Amino acid sequence: MSSIDVSRAMLLVEDNPHDEVLALRALNKVGLGDRVVVVRDGEEALEWLFSRTAAGEDLPAVVVLDLKLPKLDGLEVLERLRAHSPTQRLPVVVFSSSNEARDREASWRHSANSYVRKPVEYKLFAEVVGLLGRYWLLYNEGWTQQGGAP
Amino acid sequence: MPKHEADSELLSRSPKSEVSVLLVDDRPANLFALEHTLSELGAKLVKASSGQEALVATLHEDFALAILDVQMPGMDGYELAELMRGNPDTMNLPIIFLTADSAEEWQVFKGYESGAVDYIVKPYQPAVLRSKVRVFLQMYAQQRALRRSQDELANVNKELEAFAYSVSHDLRAPLRAIEGFSQALLEDYLALLDPMGQDFLQRISNEACRMAQLIDDLLQLSRVSRVEMNWEEVELSALAQELLERLAEQEPERQVEWSIAPQMVAQGDYPLLRQMMENLLSNAWKFSRPQSPARIAFELSKVDGRDAYVLRDNGVGFDMKYASKLFAPFQRLHAMSEFPGTGVGLCTVQRIVARHHGRIWCQSELGVGTSFYWVLNQGMEGDR
Prior knowledge:
The structure holds two protein chains of two kinds. Chain A is of the alpha/beta class. Chain A has five helices and five strands, in the order βαβαβαβαβα. Chain A has helices at residues 17-29, 42-54, 74-83, 101-109, 122-139; strands spanning 10-13, 36-39, 62-65, 92-96, 114-117. Chain A has a five-stranded parallel beta sheet, with helices on both faces. The radius of gyration of chain A is 14 Å and the shape is globular. Chain B is an alpha/beta fold. Chain B has eleven helices and twelve strands. Residues 1-16 of chain B have low confidence and may be disordered. The A-B interface holds A 16, 18-19, 22, 25, 67-68, 96-100, 102, 118-123, 125 and B 164-165, 168-170, 172-173, 175-177, 179-184, 205, 208-209, 212, 216.
């Protein structure tokens, strides 16, 4: 983790180990396998991000956030990020199995930058993860002075 | 509403719990006479000899009815009634005034138009008073039963909601692992598998995808029953045009000719009607695949003197002896290899039509085509 330039990386918040392996595999295929940090629950995600903002360290270019997480769920994480000024505008892509209207509404209400449904079909899943990685890590221009630039 | 909760709690413990009537009169002899008159009704009779006492009684108990003497020293019957109307716990409590006044005078009470107010001029006929009270007791029992069913329904809906939510999140994840790692094996270890091994893996992966589709369709079906409806005017002709164009975009190689009668509108919930049209049109599209050109027509047709919507296709059709199975969930009338599907689409359509107080039926002939007919808002034309 120490060798990663966080400002050019994705923070993947994912508790399902299989989804993690599949997502990493998809990122590897588009050459972004070394630009991802994984945390496995909502609390860990907040601790990791808030310890970096407290230390004045770079934030990732994007957070890819599962909704159903142990301890703090994804919506709570999103809400807390938006309430904390250093992470208020941190790009967050909600990435969930659910297409329930209330999840989508709550995500947009808490200013998610995108809501993407996790496809079951792996070809689609890999395409979506690859696109997200390429878009946020290669093409999107950074959101702060120090962080997020490709 | 603590009172309401206490009431439903009481009800759930003993569904035949007693009903209470509040009797208010400053004269003990009158109270005694009232009690005697009403005793055979089987209700619990709570006596109060002043307005203050009556208000205290309403704090402790839920009443089906209050019978108030109008002429009382201090707070009279009208004042007491005004105070009870102002309190959320007693604002709907029906009241019978006992009065020596003329009929015109008792109407000074502002709440009389609520309908839950009656009056009897003294001296009263015991049998008349009894039958009036009986009507109020029956009304109260019916309201209580209705409230109980509403509570139960709300609970069941909440459970269904939680169930669907959990299905939506949790049931797809294992399928993604099954499908994903099957694909990973096919991609990374292809050389180690003979064609039969590859075929087995492909079957595993296909079925995982099919199950995911099934879960989505089932969730859609349950959502159709759960969602709150917003009634508005929906332009079905324009909607059908949009959906058919979309289908054509997905399969540009198909030759499909369609015709849509102009300006057909329906009163209903837009997302639900859109879902209905989507399911019906994609069925017509799918089952007319062997035809070139395929023909789809959406128009109005007179059925029993009123307009029914009808959607016709010249597709493969089906044997009408299976028509009864058409709208049941998971029922399919065609082989999976020929026309894939989960068998939930038409069941969803039927529920949407039912939520619009309508009816849907079908005419079909093998090799000739299928026509779906439906009407919405039956018997409600005047209202909407």
